Amino acid sequence: MREGSLPHAMLRPMSGDQIEHESLVVSLNDEEALAAYKQPFDAYPVSLLPRIIGGFLIACGNLFYGRRPSYMKFRAIEVIARVPYHSWSSAIFTFLTLFYSNEDRALRLSTLSHFTRFAADNETMHVVVISGLARAHERAGLLRHTIIPMLFAFFYFWTSYVLYLLNPRWSLEINYLFEQHAFDHYSLFLEICGDDLKARPIHSSYLAWYGRDVRSHYEFFRSVRNDEIIHRNRSVHEIELHCSRGRAAF
């Protein structure tokens, strides 16, 4: 659904951060720009514990939903992808309750909290729209497509929360791996199903409310692919910005 399909009163005003983000998303439609954007962080050295936990989550996803991309697998991925941002918000709230009198620490935590709220809204848009698209392609089973993703999400939430309290770098690095996995899957999906996706128009009131202007399934999934690499790079940026001084920074 185009933006004009919703009454003006129902349209959400876009913040400066979202306008900047949407501009970056569009710019990454150019493959050379995308390669230049992602390359500096492709070889980021992830710590052992995040590699183990991230590898476990990805392996379980491949076991239950297969290795090939699909609408239903993307639905499960996006249910889980929202989790760390909410988990970090909760952990930051805990830290701010303990360290509210330390203005420098509160400022660093609040900066990350601002990002988590924006990213959570973005991931929520993904799961709402993809769930609607998936219904037209495959029937969602209660166990496989609702209960199992929720169990994964529960595990991921508390793992991210505890790791953030112990060492924020570990929690951010798991997100780096998960967002890289999502980016790779969306890229493969666009490659193998591109022509079919381009022929499918998209109609979504939620997309109109969110403020993303796309005309086809291809344009939508390409924009989601770009969101994921932005989130991946932002995870490394937060590590460099907030964890470079060690745990004392928190």
Alpha carbon gap, first and last residue: 44 Å
Report on the biggest sheet.
none
| Percentage of β-strand residues | under 5%
Number of strands: 0
Mean pLDDT figure: 88
What general form does the structure show?
globular
CATH architecture: Up-down Bundle
Rg over CA atoms, rounded to whole Å, is: 18 Å
Within the CATH hierarchy, at the fold level, what is the topology? Ferritin
Which stretches of 5+ consecutive residues score pLDDT under 50? Answer: 246-250
Helix content: over 70%
State the CATH class.
Mainly Alpha
Give me some keywords for this one.
disordered C terminus; 10 helices; 250 residues; Ferritin
Give an account of the 3D structure.
With 250 residues, the protein is mainly alpha-helical. 75% of the residues lie in helices and 0% in strands. The chain contains 10 helices and no strands. The chain is globular. The N and C termini lie far apart (44 Å). Residues 246-250 have low confidence and may be disordered.
Protein topology:
Blueprint: H1 16-27, H2 31-38, H3 48-65, H4 71-81, H5 83-99, H6 103-135, H7 142-166, H8 168-198, H9 205-210, H10 217-242
Helix pairs in contact: 3-8, 4-6, 4-7, 5-6, 5-7, 6-10, 7-8, 8-10
